[in-house]
Each structure stands twice: as C-alpha cells, then as structure tokens.
Design a protein that fits this description.
Elements lengths: L1 E5 L2 H20 L3 E7 L12 E5 L5 H9 L2 H6 L4 E4 L5 H11 L2 E6 L8 H8 L4 E5 L2 H8 L7 E2 L22 E7 L5 H14 L5 E7 L4 H10 L6 E3 L15 E4 L8 H8 L3 E5 L14 E3 L4 H13 L1 H18 L2 H16 L12
Helix pairs in contact: 1-12, 2-4, 7-10
C-alpha cells in the first residue's frame, strides 16, 4: 500500500497539525506515503521519513487542477497505489490522477461545499474506484443521498491527541483571553458578537480578544472592530502556517459563524480544555450544546451577551464545560481513531491487506 496524500495551501493553513499526524500515523501502520504538497510549505513542516512531490498551488481552480495532474509521471515513478485528496478543492485533480494511474481515489469531505461536487466526481471517475471520507455524520448523509451503486461512504471523524493540561478558568485575578475565529468576512454573525463584546468591555471586567482570520479581509474586520470600540481589548493573531497551534493558550475559543465545515481547531480547543462558544451548525456534529460547547442559535447580540457573561462570571461552570468537552474528545475524536478509520477505508477501497513486520525468533 502506497498512499499519495494531496494537500493544498488553504487546507494546510487550517489543518497542518492534522496533516502531520496523518502522515506519522500511516507510517506507523506500515503504509508507504508520498506527500504531495505545495512548494511553499517549509521542509520542517513535512515528514523526513516519506517521499515528497512538490507542486505550485494557485487560487485558480483550472490552474490548480492542471498543475496537479501534471504530476502523474512522478507519482507513477513513486509507485503510488492510492490517491487521497484531503480537501474538496483537490478532488477533481485526484480523480483524474487516479484514472491515469489506474488506482483508487479517496476524497475527504470536510465542508458542505463539497457535497454538490459528489455527482460530478463520480461521472469523472468512470470505472475508477472512488470512496468518500466525510468528517461528520451530516456530511455522510448528504453525500449518501447523491450516490448510487456500491460507492463507499465511510465516516472518518477528525482526531486530535489528548492533552493532560487544562487551562485555568477565568476568575477575579485572571483576565479572560478569548480567540475569535471564523472566515474573516464581516457579516451579521460577526456584528452580533461584536455588539455583545462591546457591552462586555464597557463594564469592569478585564477581557482580551484575539482575532484569528482564515480568509476574507482582515483589514475590514479590524475596521469593524474599531467602529464598535473594541480595539483596546483586541489584537490580531499573526497569520502564518501553523499559527493556530499557539492559540491554545487562551481560555476560550469563540466561533461566531456556522461555517458548515469540520475544523480540527475546534477539537484541539476542546482537547486543551478551552471553553468553546459557537453558533450552532447543522453540519458539525461535535458541537453539542452544554456538553462540548455553549451555543447560540441565531446571530443575536443578546444570546452572545448571555454566553460571554456566563463565561466571565461563572468560572466553575466554564471549567466543567472544558472538562466535559475534553472527555468527549478523548472518547470520540482521538487521533488514533482517525488513523484506524482511514486504514479501514483504504483496505475497503483497494481490497489490499497490510503487511506487518515479522518477529524473529529469539
């Protein structure tokens, strides 16, 4: 078994830690891996124990697909026997490569935006073997409704490593630090949260917020924060590959938008015992009200005010939520579970078994 893992820049910016643990986990299970990664990814962010194929990423869909499919000869030389697209934006190229190489393709689905692509990918695949790996049950159900025949749909929930340390909850002697994370596009969801934050910072409570933006226009978001009078209590988290890993030192993580996307960042926060406040999202099954997160149902400033006040003024309740969420992640979203489910899917789509090292007689 030799898996070619295709990753693009946008996905790595969000999921670099997930990529690393997937590569290491597959190697530990005796799977050969070729990392198909953008040439902008630093060498230290890849595994030195596997081969690499570099490509130049692009924001243009057609150019990205063309550059990836040009790698067919190099992947053939690597003797790759399975293509795994880790992001929906690389599905098309992965299916084409699998067809040219005569291999199976595994397509990871992490966003509601992937669902409309399913039928197109099946038509493109023709007789090639294709399997879908949705990250959540709602994504799996939506994909299943769009397929027929014996196409595999195998849920592979994102996994994270358990963390022993739990941050202390906010109390009278500790200024609250919270990360606000979303797509960076100012909308009604950000507006509702900013209005609630405005009410909070106008009082005697000490609170510091850090804006984390994946996409969008950070400058416009910063201007919006200025209009709400939040700049004295807000900082912009510096953007670079892997920068989200340093955000786990906060007390809470706030996601004001229903992004319709599974993000390991949320699970990492839960694993670290951070209190997660989020807008309810029908596509994300691990945002469970009062078990893994405190949720708002609408972009309503009053609902956000209630949650923020609860976060600041009820440290014991916040601490319990962090403990419960961390336990949920330990039981349902461990990195080892993600690797096991990925391997099970690889076996099913290829029909191959794995060779295990033989013991020598002592």
């Amino acid at each position: 078994m030799h898996a070619g893992l295709i990753a693009n820049t946008a996905w790595l910016d969000e999921e670099l830690a997930s990529f690393r643990q997937l590569v290491v986990g597959l190697i530990d299970e005796q799977v050969r891996v070729t990392q198909v990664v953008p040439d902008s990814l630093p060498d230290e962010d890849t595994s030195a124990f596997t081969s690499q194929v570099r490509w130049q990423d692009s924001s243009w869909t057609l150019l990205r697909r063309w550059r990836l499919t040009r790698l067919v000869d190099r992947l053939a030389n690597e003797q790759v026997s399975l293509i795994h697209a880790l992001d929906g934006r690389t599905w098309d190229a992965a299916v084409r490569l699998a067809g040219q190489l005569g291999t199976a393709a595994v397509l990871s689905a992490t966003s509601k935006l992937d669902v409309p692509l399913v039928k197109k990918m099946l038509r493109r695949a023709g007789q090639s073997r294709v399997a879908f790996a949705p990250a959540t049950k709602p994504l799996a159900e939506a994909i299943t409704q769009r397929i027929s025949g014996d196409t595999l749909v195998h849920i592979v929930p994102p996994g994270v490593h358990p963390v022993e340390h739990t941050p202390r909850p906010a109390d009278d002697g500790h200024a609250l630090c919270a990360v606000v994370t979303g797509n960076g596009i100012f909308d009604e969801h950000y507006a509702a949260l900013f209005e609630a934050m405005q009410s909070l910072v106008s009082g005697p409570r000490e609170v510091q917020f850090f804006l984390d933006c994946q996409d969008g226009d950070p400058h416009r978001l910063w201007q919006s924060a200025q209009r709400y009078g939040l700049l004295s209590n807000m900082s912009m988290a510096p953007r670079r590959l892997g920068h989200r890993e340093v955000l786990m030192g906060a007390d809470a993580l706030i996601q004001p938008q229903p992004l319709g996307r599974a993000r390991s960042l949320i699970l990492h926060a839960m694993a670290h015992g951070l209190v997660v406040l989020a807008h309810a999202d029908p596509w994300v099954d691990y945002l469970r009200a009062d078990q893994t997160a405190w949720l708002v149902q609408q972009p309503d400033p009053d609902q956000w005010v209630q949650l923020l006040l609860r976060l600041v003024d009820a440290p014991s309740s916040a601490g319990k939520l962090g403990v419960d969420a961390r336990q949920w992640v330990r039981e349902k979203h461990r990195a080892t579970q993600q690797i096991d489910k990925t391997l099970a899917l690889y076996r099913r789509v290829t029909g191959e078994s794995f060779k295990f090292p033989t013991r020598q007689a002592g």
